[in-house]
Design a protein that fits this description.
Blueprint: H1 6-12, H2 27-41, E1 46-48, H3 51-60, E2 69-75, E3 88-92, E4 103-106, H4 109-118, E5 122-124, H5 126-133, E6 141-144, H6 156-159, H7 177-185, E7 188-192, E8 199-206, H8 211-227, E9 240-245, E10 251-253
Parallel strand pairs: 1-10, 4-5, 4-6
Antiparallel strand pairs: 2-8, 2-9, 3-7, 9-10
């Protein structure tokens, strides 16, 4: 089993001009060095005892030319066959995700104007439903005013499978449009355990975030997910916790440390 020490991860994450590179080393050479390192460990399972160590390793192996996301996957020990044990919710990450989220709001009148003022990217009612039915889904989050929800029944078959259908339990059907839009734009993350393996997968930021910001986001998300498990699982650790970047290998945490 391959293990990467904190010191090794720090060296991998070194900036241009460090001891890893020749005096005139370039950023492309650093990316190449990291890319070969990633290939070497693809078939292995990296492990870390602590969250900080895992984040350091993940950031070190983020070698793409574009900003990489840092994701966390929690495999819960709930019974996926029981509907009352399916975990689903939202949480506002303290440092956001680093992504620009396009928000659609289904509303009329004053609430529609409120949505536009709050920064919603797409606002409408009947016209927006028609756009959805045509397959035009240029948004990642959907919020609806309560009086417009019946109108959206037509679009349920399109929005539902993509996890976009508004739901009062998740705070996406509300009269507090301004607050809902600001939360969606400000780093609120929706999560749900899949029905096959009880796996919750979510983004906790970008690889360029500091360890502190990623740690705070990860802890906030994990606390929210684990707190929504049925009472009989309180105090029990999840089955596994893995952190990875978009192109890097997964780093498995010691899941026994997490027993919220």
């Amino acid at each position: 089993m391959l293990r990467v020490s904190r010191a090794a991860a720090t060296r991998l994450a070194a900036s241009p001009g460090s001891a890893l590179l020749p005096p005139h080393g370039s950023q492309s050479l650093l990316r190449t060095t990291r890319r070969f390192a990633v290939k070497d460990v693809r078939a292995e399972r990296l492990r870390a005892a602590h969250l900080d160590e895992a984040l350091q390793i993940v950031r070190a192996y983020a070698c793409a030319r574009y900003p990489e996301s840092v994701d966390i996957a929690l495999r819960l020990n709930t019974d996926v066959k029981r509907s009352d044990e399916r975990v689903r919710g939202t949480v506002l990450l303290p440092h956001g995700t680093g992504k620009s989220i396009r928000v659609a709001v289904f509303a009329r009148g004053e609430l529609a104007e409120e949505a536009r003022a709050a920064g919603a990217d797409v606002v409408g009612a009947e016209d927006l439903v028609e756009e959805v039915l045509k397959g035009r889904l240029d948004f990642e989050r959907v919020i609806a005013a309560p009086d417009v929800l019946p109108l959206m029944a037509k679009a349920a078959r399109t929005l539902g499978p993509k996890g976009l259908m508004p739901n009062p339990k998740r705070g996406t059907v509300t009269k507090e449009i301004t607050e809902a839009v600001k939360r969606a734009k400000g780093g609120e993350v929706e999560f749900r355990a899949d029905t096959k393996a009880g796996l919750v997968h979510a983004t906790i930021g970008r690889a360029e975030f500091s360890n502190e910001h990623l740690r705070n986001n990860a802890l906030t998300l994990m606390d929210a997910v684990l707190a929504l498990r049925p009472a009989r699982f309180k105090g029990k650790a999840p089955r596994s916790i893995t952190i990875s970047s978009t192109t890097g290998p997964g780093v498995k945490l010691d899941h026994r440390l997490w027993t919220v």
